[in-house]
Amino acid sequence: MSHDQLQAGELLYTLHYLGEGFDLFWYKGQVYSDQIASDKPDPDPPPPDLNVQVLSRPHYVWWAKVRHKDGRTGWTNEPHKFGNVDACG
């Protein structure tokens, strides 16, 4: 999807962050991934040179799957409380 497909006043919805600067969007029944220039809402009214105005950003919480040494697994939203975490943790 490109910005020239959008008409003034149309909305697209950010579903969630995908990583590496990309977000997942919903627009007219389809999902798309693209980068968004702002990590916070833009001013209203937007500056004249702004092609797409960000009205809001979704709030999300990353969860991590953990495995105990005996093989049991579970999920946590506090990965900082665990050791042996990779760089994405």
Q: What does the main sheet amount to? A: 3 strands, antiparallel
| Cα-atom radius of gyration | 18 Å
Give the helix/strand class: mainly beta
Whole-number tally of structural domains: 2
Average of the residue pLDDT scores: 82
**CA-based shape:** elongated
Could you outline the blueprint of secondary structure elements for this entry?
Layout: E1 13-19, E2 22-27, E3 30-35, E4 64-67, E5 73-76
Antiparallel strand pairs: 1-2, 2-3, 4-5
Compact summary:
The protein is 0% helix and 30% strand. By secondary structure, the chain is an all-beta fold.
Descriptive account of the structure:
By secondary structure, the chain is mostly beta strands. It folds into 2 domains: 10-46 and 54-58, no CATH class; 60-89, no CATH class. 0% of the residues lie in helices and 30% in strands. The chain has no helices and 5 strands. The protein has strands spanning 13-19, 22-27, 30-35, 64-67, 73-76. The strands form 2 sheets. The chain has a 3-stranded antiparallel β-sheet with strand order 1-2-3, with no helix packed on it. It has a two-stranded antiparallel ribbon with strand order 4-5. Strand 4 (64-67) and strand 5 form a beta hairpin. The chain is elongated and about 60 Å long. The mean pLDDT is 82.
